[in-house]
Automatic annotation (TrEMBL):
This is RNA methyltransferase. One of its GO terms (biological process) is methylation. Residues 126-260 form the tRNA/rRNA methyltransferase SpoU type domain. Residues 14-98 form the MRM3-like substrate binding domain. One of its GO terms (molecular function) is methyltransferase activity. It comes from the Bacteria. Belongs to the class IV-like SAM-binding methyltransferase superfamily. RNA methyltransferase TrmH family. PANTHER family: RRNA METHYLTRANSFERASE 3, RRNA METHYLTRANSFERASE 3, MITOCHONDRIAL. It comes from Psychrobacter coccoides. Transmembrane segments: none annotated. CDD domains: SpoU-like_rRNA-MTase. Keywords: Methyltransferase, Transferase. The keyword Signal does not apply.
Amino acid sequence: MASNPTEFITSDKNSTVKLVKALLTQTRQRKKHGQTVLEGVHLLDAALRSNCQLEASSFNQVLIAKSAMNHIEAQHILQRLPTHVPILVLADALYQSIRSLGTGIDIMATIDIPTNILPVIHSDCLILNDVQDSGNVGTLLRTAAAVGIPDVLCTTATAQAWSPKTLRAGMGAQFGLHIYENLNIEEVLDKVKVPLLATSSHTDTLIYEHNLRGPVAWIMGHEGQGVADDLMQCATPIALPQPNGQESLNVAIAGSLCMYETLRQRHYN
């Protein structure tokens, strides 16, 4: 830590403090600056352990409350930072005025949002078609990472995969995935070369009866409107049984069930 440039800040007029506050709360500012905020030791630890998405140059600065400087977990984070990353030590009241988490170890960092160019996909992938709730997106990313699906494709109206809320919901799963955002449906259909599958209540093909042993692309749609017609017309509809007759499952639950049934058929039959 000693070799990192360090500055103590007490004013909310500081330009970096104002930027971080905007990045925490505004989608527009994250898009404008191409940056987001990792808040809390868990996300910072996940980022520092990542060898998939983040490079050392992705880190812009770390902000830490003065009272957290001697916390053992915070020290462990600071000692692993690349030496070029500035450490901004904020007065406790100032840090608390910008944080979005509750009480805990007051440390956060800004990073450049990873950007990827969509390649041709010949392996398993997850397609998020305008899934709008950050919690749902984060849960789906976390499940994809858990079962070993490497690529996630997000159409234009999907919640930001790298927003602070989605990062928290995903518990840092983003760092183990290749995520492609702001795609239109034509790009998805052009690049994905494996069978498309989408859950539907208008089919008799149960997921447990469908062969999932080869590469597939699971499509999860908008919470209210479902999968877009253009995608659905190219997909095989798959039913999740609901013997008690509920109207539908939450999209994150449905997607997790689909991904885990894929895993079960391949490894746990």
